[in-house]
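User: I want to check something. If I give you two sequences, will you return the structure for each one separately, not as a complex?

Assistant: Yes, each is folded on its own. Here is the first sequence with its structure:
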Amino acid sequence: MAKNTGSSPAAAANKPLKRPSQARARFTIQAIYDAFVRIWHAQGWAGVTTRALALETGIAVGTLYDYFPNKQAVLSGYVRHCMEQLLEVLQTQVIAPTDLDWQHRVQRLVALTCGARQAGAAYFDHDMLMLEGQIAETKHHRRVYQELLEKWQAALAACDDLPRRPTAETVQALLLAAWGGRRYLLLVQPEGMALENWSAEMARLFCQALVSEGDRQDNEDNGH
């Protein structure tokens, strides 16, 4: 029996044809994604067409087709763009700064991962998540998880003043709680739970968990 790789013909067909390599091409793709978000806000998924994108950007339809065979491919490219933006923001705002104590670094790490509306964060919402089945393959979810895990590992490694380093299992558990919680919050949109409030509460719980993890390791080292 053939192994199930998690790919589907529909999802595989709804992908950008190529990634921009030159500055002009990157500018063009960014303009398309910016127009995509504007149209999405105004008209939703039904309003997103290659013609609408061409009119909004002033880019020829033929140029659009050089990169995107259909609007699902635009969405697929945009979702990847969102992830690249998140990874970049984690690097520049969480990992790279040298003036953050560990509590503020962790709070920022959690807030950005949980989708807080901060500078550099790309727009993503419930309706986009509902279309995920049209564009996503299992291998893409795994790649996103691995990329996020590497950033979380680097962010916690940058916490020089953290009393004890969390174990690899603890880091993975915290990431899964934050990333999985973000996706479920978008999915169910629970009444009375604003994203910013949830994000702040998650950050508080994670800081407590890291302190408790340090205490647990100390107790184990002391034979308690």
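And separately, the second sequence with its own structure:
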Amino acid sequence: QPQYDAPAGGLVRLRAAITDVTRIYGFRVDGAEAAVIALDGNPVPQRFAPDALQLGPGQRLELAIRMPDDEGAIVSLRDVRGTKPKVLATLRAVGQSLKRDLRDLGPLEPNPVAEVDVAAARRIPLALSATAENVAADSICGSLGYSFWAINKVPWPGDTPDPTAPLAELKLGQSYIIDMENLTPHAHPIHLHGMSFKVLSSSTRAVQPLISDTYLIQPDEKVQLGFVADNPGDWLLHCHIIEHQKTGMTSYLRVT
């Protein structure tokens, strides 16, 4: 709950990174006009108010906040998910108003992420489910002694010398679409290493074509994530809630 001073009537760029590996947050700003300008290190196509925006472990949020004109006014960044909303940080307006406008903040420069060719893309089915099979082996990060989650019905065996086969073997430079379905009653922040994807569509809501490396999939949601396999190697794909990762919800993509 830090408090920062900021010029009254000025613009503040606030970055929050979720380093708690267990909690999903619902972000809201009270006491000032605010807009989401970037998520997970990428500018959003269209800025929007953080109205209980849900983000999970490992995700990054960047806000532009227009401070109040009155000296001493308090702006709060809150987590409103759950039954007990919490204040995460506050900003205090100081000095005479600078009378700025959120529209003064120009567009952010896009990152050089390859554009997916949807028409030529190959599909990768990905189902998130629960399991009680195949106890995970001890590994460098330890083990909880059981498996509970799975990707495409395969629970991750642990960081062993002979891991499970890759979820898919991808051709370098080819476009792909992950057809991800959440069959569980829990939300999962699914994180891809090594590459970024574009959010193409969701079965439950309208989505912006965001560029990201993490997608918080809701219960019973189906989502399409498009990307170009432009980075050779074996790349982890897992839930960023570490208990879920360590108990089976982990796989990897192989790009050659």
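Because they were folded independently, the notes below concern the second chain alone. The chain has a mean pLDDT of 91. The chain has one helix and 20 strands.
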